[in-house]
Amino acid sequence: MSRKPQGSQWKTLDTDLNRISQLELGTAYVSRPLVGLGLGLAFMVLAGLGTSVFFGVGNAGLVVIVAAVFGAYMALNIGANDVANNMGPVVGAKALTMSGAILMAALCETAGALLAGGDVVSTISQDIIDPAAVASSGSFVRAMMAALISAALWVNLATWIGAPVSTTHSVVGGVMGAGIAAAGLIAINWPSMGLIAASWVISPVLAGVFAALFLAFINARIIYRADKIAAARVWVPVLVGVMAGAFTSYLALKGLKRVIGIDMTSALLIGAVVGVIVYAVSKPRIRRQSEGMENRNKSIKALFSLPLVFSAALLSFAHGANDVANAVGPVAAIVHATEFGVFAQKVTIPLWVMVIGALGISFGLFLFGPKLIRMVGSQITKLNPMRAYCVALSAAVTVIVASWLGLPVSSTHIAVGGVFGVGFYREWYMERRLRRSGEAVGDVKLIAKEERRRRKLVRRSHFMTIVAAWVITVPAAALMSGVIYGVLGLMMA
């Protein structure tokens, strides 16, 4: 007959079980990052195995398999880093949960890549290299492989340190570095590189200015009005119509190139028509939605949430259509050169290559995206639906203006520049109000200068980290690409 445990025995058992539970929790916490890493590696392996079905494992097939594996790696990094620019503001404004934003972004990115992704891409990105410099197919394959590997490694490093960088500029730097390694400095088209360098400064500043102007307009016309609801009924439909028109033109210019070719004038006319229609439809909806609302800012935020969600979806669709080429463009170029023994400045992207890029972006977003989404959405500056709306609208308008000016812009620089613009505008406005308050009471400083410095609305540490990462992206990717090109030359000799 067994004896029941005494009180002290129960206490010892509970202590031991508690230790085991703590060990299990600790093990789960430590191993959680390894799950994403393992799934990412599994996706890369599957991409390589799938490619081997098409090309076998001979010398030529092995080169294509390796390219497919690194293309999958690059796509994972694009999903982890670049997509945060579109989803960060909507999550930071609490218009969507993290899981909802990731699901929506994955669907829209995949749809954009497969439905509107460019079926023909330039193999020499932005005409950086003189094609005569890489006349042999072997040199060309090594250059594209080095560019792909170096860009993926750099974006991976940037994601790890929490800096949203441009994957487009990473590829540009990789191509430049490989071109220099292959044929020297004379092979580089320096005017094109100068234009790209100018865009590092122009595009984020332009986006920041637009975002600040939109926020100033919303503050003046809606937020700081005595009757906020009446003001919102007048201006929110106008703002929604402007957003719809801007995004229609944006998608026509940047996201639908595969479906139909549209020039700037046609895109703007289509956007204007859509904007007027959306204004007419949204005006009665906003009036109904605002009935019974309290005259406070919280009510205004609710009116901007739905347009903000739609803008994030459209940005993700356009991003998938455009930036999938960063992952699969070099792969498609390598496939073409391997199959035909010659390279071309423009090649058709095979469907299976496009699928690797689209799925890789989605998996990278699922597995590694939340870190950068939180960074862009809440850690640079505090966002609400109105501020996030200004960021999204400034992104669309900046792309349109940059296309008109002929500037090669980065969606990363534009989106993050818009966030900075909103934050710095709020700092300026708060300082202005503080100075006016001081004047009203006889120039008495209500808050000490040290305390005002501590209350800055833009996190300076993140600002400096991001700007530094932007500045060194092209040189760092170029340096790595040049080294990798040399290593590949030794391995293929």
Spell out the key features of this protein.
single chain, 493 residues, mainly alpha, globular
Describe the structure concisely for a colleague.
This protein is mainly α. The chain has one domain.
Total helical segments: 15
**Ends: how far apart?**
79 Å
The biggest beta sheet, please?
Answer: 2 strands, antiparallel
How confident is the prediction overall: mean pLDDT? 80
Q: Which structural class should the secondary elements be placed in?
A: mainly alpha
SSE pattern: HHHHEHHHHHHEHHHHH
Number of strands: 2
Whole-number radius of gyration?
26 Å
Number of domains: 1
Our estimate of the beta-strand percent is under 5%
User: Outline, from the CA principal axes?
Assistant: globular
Sheet with the most strands: spatial strand order: 1-2
- Determine the fraction of residues in helical runs and give it as a percent range: over 70%
Question: Stretches where pLDDT falls below 50 for ≥5 residues?
Answer: 440-444
